[in-house]
Amino acid sequence: MEFNKYIDHTLLAPDATEEQVDTVIKQAIDNHFHTVMINPYWVAKTHKAVAGTDVKTACVIGFPLGANTTKIKVAEAQDAIDNGVDELDMVMNIGEMKSGHYDKVEKDIQAVVDAGHAANKVVKVIIETCLLTDDEITKASEIVAKTGADFVKTSTGFSTEGATVHAVKLMSAAVKGSNTAVKASGGIHSAEEAQAMIDAGATRLGVSHSMAIIGKE
Question: Which CATH superfamily is domain 4-213 in?
Answer without folding.
Answer: Aldolase class I (3.20.20.70)
